[in-house]
Amino acid sequence: MSAPSSRTRRLRIPAVVIALVLLLGAGIASVMGVRSFQAANRSLEHSYRVINLIEATDAAVRAAEANARGFRNTNLIEFRPGFFEAVGRATRLTEQLAQLTADHPQQQARARTLGEAIATHLVALQVLLDINAIEATDAEVRRRNASTNLRRVAEINALSQEMLAVEQMLLQKRRQRSEREASTLVLFIVLAMTIALVLLGLLLAGLARENKRSRQLEREARHAVSELQGALVLRDTLAEQRRAQSVYAGLLQSCQSRDELVLLTMRTMQDLVPGSSGRCYLSKSSQNFLESAGSFGDRVISSSDVIMHEQCWALRRGQPHYTRGRSGGLRCAHIDDDTPVDGISSLCVPLVAQGSSLGLLHISGRTSDAVEDNDAGIIMSIAEQMGMAIANLQLRETLRLQSIRDPLTGLFNRRYLEENLVREMLRCERRRLPLSLMMLDVDHFKRFNDQHGHAAGDAVLAHVGRVLQSLVRAEDLACRYGGEEFTIVLPETGAEAAIQRGLEICRAMSSLTIRHMDRMLGPITVSIGIATAPHDSADPGLLLEIADAALYRAKAEGRDRVLHTSAQA
Ligand SMILES: Nc1nc2c(ncn2[C@@H]2O[C@H](COP(=O)(O)OP(=O)(O)OP(=O)(O)O)[C@@H](O)[C@H]2O)c(=O)[nH]1
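Above: query sequence and guanosine-5'-triphosphate SMILES. Below: predicted holo structure tokens.
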């Protein structure tokens, strides 16, 4: 593409020079032609003037002859002036003829000869006017004179004719030369103009082609610039998205709860895919449905708050499921039927970690501005990180529960009790409210173990744990203190209320029927010792000891009872 255009460009200057030279040549030729035409006209005019002079001279000589003869024949005096006027005219004309033919020496020589002959002839004619002299002349002399006159007239005629013929010939030659020159000139001008016009036409065509090519290149350059700008914007967007993802990954590690994690994810999604909206569903442990845990954006598609596992293609297949408009894939059953289809894209991405399904990210948006390829990549990356974060959170929660819960009864363990008893006592003390502490021990548990076996004993302890959990308030702390001994912290509870609660527990335990290995166990009874702060002590360790002492006394007094340091039930 570049080689021909550069060759054309190289030829352009010589072509312009040639075209200009040809046009200049045509111009000069035109001027020269006009001048040559003028010169030819002048020489033609000159020839015509010479011819006219010859004919006028001849006419003047004839007029002189006619007047001379008229006078001699009629003797009328009127012929004399005409004669002399004709003689004078003939003499002037012969002189003019000699001057006019100065450009042609031979013609001038003829003109002079003719002038001399005419002059001689006119002198001879003048003799005719002198009648007396003629009559005095004898007949022989007159006859000789007449013969001489005739010869001179013939000579004058011959000279005139010769001059006329020569002038006609010159006229003819000049005319032919003028025509030849004119034809050559016209041919040259036509050729020069044609070549110049062809060259200029070719140049203009080349320029037009180049102009078109330049415009095309300009368009391509503009397109390339806009593509580059688009690429730069995309690069910036991707960099911003990478930065947001890295911030998200960092913050994920610090999330303390699923709610926090969902909130963070929704905000991040809002930033990363601003044109879309979405929801996050989390699985309920050991249940076959997912609940909406958070959302972002203005919803363009309506999806159920609770979805069954089988309602979502992504959950069923364990991989992302993408739909685009009416014809772009099957919609999941959790999307409401009456939501618009055309121009809407949606993407369901399962939240998976270590092979187990933890939830679902459902993103939707208008096809033009959301859930495109890049967005889908981001959403899947976010879903992957979120899945792992949820799994980590669950693991942490499990470990935390394991560290504070007793695995057999599900109640808090002794370490948790000791940590939280101090806090609860301080809180109640600040608010000037009482706090009761209950120590509970299963009666004759050794005997029970011995009769039914250790596994049956474990089953009883697990049941006791469940009963205690069901009988305490949410703010109470039910703990397994160790072995078959339990502790319940009752914040904001005075001695009376604590004793009532203890009695309820005793009744619930004695009516407990436990089935283990197809055998009915029980009934069981429990003994309970209670101490209340700040009445008994404001010190957690001491309060425990006082409650334990009350329990010891309850055992000593016959078991299956509740005993408070300050009162007995
Ligand atoms: N099955 C089972 N037994 C336990 C567990 N922890 C402690 N024990 C048993 O509980 C019994 C406690 O017996 P003791 O402390 O002598 O008291 P008791 O037999 O309950 O008699 P009193 O408390 O005086 O009514 C022991 O035999 C322990 O082995 C446990 O986790 N599971």
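The domain at 2-207 is CATH 1.20.120.1730 (Four Helix Bundle (Hemerythrin (Met), subunit A)).
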